[in-house]
Design goal:
Blueprint lengths: L7 E7 L5 E7 L7 E10 L2 H8 L10 E2 L4 E8 L14 E4 L2 E3 L5 H4 L10 E2 L11 E5 L4 E3 L7 H4 L5 H12 L6 E5 L4 H12 L3 E6 L2 H10 L3 E4 L6 H7 L9 E4 L5 H9 L5 E4 L12 H6 L3 E4 L5 H12 L7 E5 L3 H9 L6 E5 L3
Parallel strand pairs: 11-12, 11-14, 12-13, 14-15, 15-16, 17-18
Antiparallel strand pairs: 1-2, 1-4, 3-5, 3-9, 3-18, 5-6, 6-10, 7-8
Protein name: alcohol dehydrogenase
Pfam families: ADH_N, ADH_zinc_N
Cofactor: Zn(2+)
């Protein structure tokens, strides 16, 4: 029996004047290669705040429905979506940041689809998951097995936060038994990065601000917490957190502020890797050239992940190795969530219940 699909739905919409509000809009119809998903939950990422503020030098759709961590159930599919593609009506799926790619450019052919110049981005260049029904390209939706009793509210943050930090840890090339420093460890990405790192056998040094975030980081598996608000010498404190005092082998920069991007090369171990993931508006990375060269420090960017990375990130979740500390609120409360983000008061991840 086909699901009953309404004609209209509730959605958080950014209009041309840059204002977001809860509106009633039509339920979209899936294109030939798309599926229509009844969104039950959607995580809230700092990227969504950047989209609202139009912070980045990247053209944004207007009007726009934001969101790119949408978890729900397929209720309809386009004419070219065959059952053999692994997506069918009734399946549990997720809408990630990469809504679609071309599949045939040099990057797509090498499993680097996040670099595709024709990529469409959920909640940025196409409407995303801050609505009750959303369309997505069938080949890019993430898949959750129904027979595992998966909790979609807990699964939603894996679609961006989990994927992004898991891929970043792979990019850092830090091996089991080595140290990784996670900057912004108390937030949505950081809370998952700490758990992925622990599950991968890494020693975690968490860096963030305030005792509440410190307590959360320790509970999630960090061995050391460095509070940048009280530290008198952050570089020295991070180095001292390693057994030999040489500093961490890798650094994940997740914080939405510029200063950590200038500090990281000062405490990363020689021949270590600094991975830039957070994207503060207008921020720049600078480092002393001589020190970077003679210590053979690598600085690289890591941007979400490919579809195989998504499969692996979800597998950690399904095995109970990672779980974001989520706070579920109604979709009507999204602007309040953004206020908490602006004040750096978010511990873990907010997830929206689209039914309220």
């Amino acid at each position: 029996m086909a699901p009953d699909i309404p004609k209209e739905q509730k959605a958080q919409v950014i209009t041309a004047d840059g204002v977001m509000s809860l509106k009633t809009i039509p339920v979209p119809t899936p294109g030939p290669q798309e599926v229509l998903i009844h969104i039950l939950y959607s995580g809230v990422c700092h990227t969504d705040l950047h989209a609202l503020n139009n912070d980045w030098p990247l053209p944004r759709k207007t009007p726009l429905v934001g969101g790119h961590e949408g978890a729900g159930v397929v209720v309809a599919k386009g004419s070219l979506v065959a059952s053999g593609q692994g997506v069918d009506v009734g399946d549990y799926v997720g809408i990630p940041w990469l809504n679609s790619t071309c599949h045939h450019c040099t990057f797509c052919m090498q499993a680097q689809e996040m670099l595709c110049s024709d990529a469409q981005l959920s909640g940025y260049t196409v409407d995303g998951s801050f609505q009750q029904y959303a369309v997505a390209n069938a080949s890019h939706v993430a898949k959750f097995p129904k027979d595992t009793g998966v909790e979609l509210d807990a699964a939603a943050p894996i679609l961006c936060a989990g994927l992004t930090v898991y891929t970043g840890l792979k990019q850092s090339q830090v091996r089991p038994g080595q140290y990784v420093a996670i900057v912004g460890a108390g937030g949505g990405l950081g809370s998952l990065a700490t758990q992925y790192a622990k599950a991968m056998g890494l020693h975690v040094i968490a860096i963030d601000g305030g005792p509440e975030k410190g307590e959360s980081c320790k509970k999630l598996g960090a061995e050391v917490y460095v509070d940048y608000l009280t530290s008198k010498d952050l570089v020295a404190d991070v180095k001292a957190a390693t057994a030999d005092g040489l500093g961490p082998h890798g650094v994940l920069l997740l914080a939405p502020m510029e200063k950590p991007f200038q500090q990281a090369t000062g405490y990363v171990r020689s021949h270590g890797t600094v991975v830039c993931i957070g994207m503060p508006a207008g921020a720049k990375v600078s480092m002393p050239v001589f020190d970077t060269v003679v210590r053979m420090v690598q600085v690289k960017g890591s941007y979400v992940g490919n579809r195989q990375d998504m499969v692996e990130a979800i597998d950690f979740f399904l095995r109970g190795l990672v779980r974001a500390p989520v706070k579920v609120v109604g979709m009507s409360e999204l602007l309040t969530v953004f206020d908490a983000m602006r004040e750096n008061k978010v511990v873990g991840r907010y997830v929206l219940d689209t039914s309220r």
